[in-house]
Amino acid sequence: MSSVLLVCKQDDVIRVLADVLRPMNFQLIDSATSAGEGRRRLQEIEYDLVIVNTPLGDEFGTDFAIDISEKFMVGVILIVKSDLVDSIEEKLIDTTAFVIPKPFNRQLLVQNVRFVCQSREKFQRLQNQNRELKAKLDDLSIVFRGKLFLMEYLNLTEDEAHRYIQKKAMDMRTSPRKVAEQIIKTYGKKA
Predict the structure, then answer these.
(1) Rounded to two decimals, what is the model's pTM?
(2) Low-confidence residues of the chain, pLDDT below 70?
């Protein structure tokens, strides 16, 4: 984790939260005193974690948490009065935000911060894997289309078309996708 945004209207609580987080080696511990200011900061800087101490000056903080959970790839922890925890958790059921009761226990906060950070990192890895798989599927789709054009216009078998694309890619020192795209461009005009 490298950056955290503390959203709280009280400077003394921001200092306490920063003191708790400092030993966790965040590269940036930033603060905002309202949801509006927090939204502006999130537009400017990519934070890994946002901790919201409710209520805020311009809104309670629940809508802010929902909004940023939907718009940004950021972990969110809300600190709320203990008698509101259940109702706030219910409102945040479709988000990845965590709710901590206050007065908060330092150890509980640290555990939740670690959990949210680890979960975010795992989610990012899964997103990256998903993007890589999608790119591979796109490549396979383009290569398959290229093979279909070769089979149709050059009367090659699928194996021959496959070998043709692979050999061209090796000869040209490029990817099979690039070769297939060129084939599609060439023979697609005739279709």
Answers:
(1) 0.72
(2) 1, 190-191
Cα–Cα distance for residue pair 88/128, rounded to 1 Å: 31
- Distance CA(172)–CA(170), nearest Å, equals 5
> What is the SS3 assignment for 32?
strand
* Cβ-defined contacts of 101-106 (< 8 Å, 24+): 102/53, 104/79, 106/20
Cis peptide before 23 (omega within 30 of 0): no
* Beta-bridge mates of residue 108: none
How many C-beta atoms lie closer than 10 Å to residue 183's C-beta? Answer: 24
pLDDT of residue 191: 57
> By C-alpha distance, which of 62, 14, 64, 68 is closest to 46?
68
The two tokens of residue 186 are: 């060439």
* pLDDT score recorded for residue 1: 55
Q: How far is 144 from 131, CA to CA, in rounded Å?
A: 20
Region at 161 (left for phi over 0; alpha for psi -120 to 50; beta for the rest): alpha
